[in-house]
Specification:
Blueprint lengths: L6 E8 L5 H12 L5 E7 L6 H6 L3 E4 L6 H15 L3 E4 L6 H9 L4 E6 L10 H11 L5 E4 L2 H8 L1 H5 L2 E2 L13 H11 L5 E6 L8 H14 L3 E6 L5 H10 L6 E4 L6 H4 L4 E4 L8 H8 L4 E4 L13 E3 L4 H14 L6 H6 L4 H18 L5
Parallel strand pairs: 1-2, 1-4, 2-3, 4-5, 5-6, 6-7, 8-9, 8-11, 9-10, 11-12, 12-13
Helix pairs in contact: 1-15, 3-4, 9-13
């Protein structure tokens, strides 16, 4: 019997350090039928995910920074033409111009622009992002995103309404708390008797860690046994550490490295904070809800992120409100059973991965999807 030709998809990721976009693509890659599709990961350099990508049969190609169009477009055109991709799926949001234009030059019919985030006026790149977003859409044959907010922002409300929602799904089977493992890690960190506030994310302006530290300082006034666990790395790490030292709370804050088995960290949290300036639909928010954690999100995050009805949205101009909400949760100790709800809403990767393959097949069958 003749073997069916695999769909060849270029996944344009860029920065491949652990974070929302690489985790999103990897969740789908781990669970999609890899006998029917090949993923080629275009990144800026080596990452902790490389070994797993290769083990699963993926390919890795390092590309120039897409912000340098004079280097990235010729490189990508040559690479795309060489590999003869069926689909180019760009996860670069406002920076999708280079890969999508290169795909046009390479005569690739299916070119997906995927919206993963938005922006905020407090961000230094706010103006340029609002300019750049207009240059990605024209070169895409198809539009997709992780939330209606991100799609409406990147593509406009008219195009956003007709774009395809590809959920930030996760492997729900992994999010079953292991009490023994949790106790062991807490013991190793010497926080067995503490109330643990957790945050996972890149230490960048977008994630608003300086405000988070202010909230934690305020929380300690009424919850002195609280500790803060920060997971991630980024350009703001020195500034964050300086603020922690200036508040004399270094003994209350723990920095942990990123790991692939991220569930181990969620297991030790008592509450999850996400005071971001902006998000698309945060993958860590889905994960925290899957672990049945009480979640405090900033009001700037789309209400779509509350998948379970248990999330509290708070302003990011008043640390006292975050402290009060945290104290209330520490006292009430709410319990949830979110996994059935997340599965029903389509956030189980076991269900979503086959749908992504169906989406790719439908695009190839139609030549392109009308926008």
């Amino acid at each position: 019997m003749e073997q069916l030709k695999r769909i060849k998809v270029a996944q344009i990721i860029g920065n491949s350090t652990c974070g929302g976009v690489p985790s999103f693509v990897m969740n789908y890659f781990r669970n999609i039928d890899r006998e029917k599709v090949d993923f080629y990961f275009y990144t800026y350099g080596p990452s902790e995910l490389d070994a797993e990508i290769l083990q699963l049969g993926g390919k890795i190609l390092h590309m120039p920074d897409v912000r340098n169009i004079f280097k990235s477009i010729p490189f990508l055109k040559k690479s795309f033409s060489h590999y003869k991709f069926d689909i180019v799926h760009s996860h670069m949001t406002t920076l999708s111009l280079s890969p999508l234009f290169a795909a046009i030059l390479s005569k690739i019919k299916i070119r997906i622009c995927h919206a993963h985030s938005t922006t905020n006026r407090k961000e230094g790149t706010y103006i340029i992002k609002n300019l750049l977003k207009h240059f990605s859409k024209p070169f895409a044959s198809n539009l997709a995103g992780c939330s209606h907010l991100s799609m409406n922002w990147l593509f406009g409300k008219k195009k956003g309404a007709s774009s395809v929602l590809i959920p930030n799904s996760i492997d729900l089977s992994l999010f079953l708390k292991n009490p023994l493992r949790s106790i062991e890690l807490k013991k190793n960190l010497k926080i067995e008797k503490n109330f643990v506030i957790g945050n996972i994310g890149r230490l960048e302006i977008q994630k608003n860690h300086l405000f988070l530290i202010d909230c934690f300082l305020k929380t300690l006034e009424t919850l002195p046994n609280a500790v803060l666990v920060l997971v991630g790395k980024g350009k703001q790490e020195d500034l964050i550490r300086e603020r922690i030292l200036s508040y004399n709370i270094a003994d209350k804050v723990i920095f942990l490295p990123e790991i692939s088995d991220i569930v181990r960290y969620y297991e030790i949290f008592d509450i999850f904070w996400l005071p971001s300036l902006y998000e698309g639909l945060p993958l860590v928010g889905v994960e925290a809800q899957a672990m049945n954690l009480p979640c405090l999100f900033s009001e700037t995050i789309s209400k779509e992120a509350d998948l379970t009805g248990n999330t509290i949205f708070l302003p990011i101009n008043n640390p006292s409100i975050w402290a009060e909400a945290t104290l209330m949760i520490a006292r009430e100790k709410p319990t949830y059973d979110n996994l059935p709800t997340l599965k029903a809403k389509g956030y189980d990767i076991k269900d979503s991965a086959p749908k992504l393959l169906d989406y790719y097949n439908s695009l190839l069958s139609n030549g392109k999807n009308p926008r």
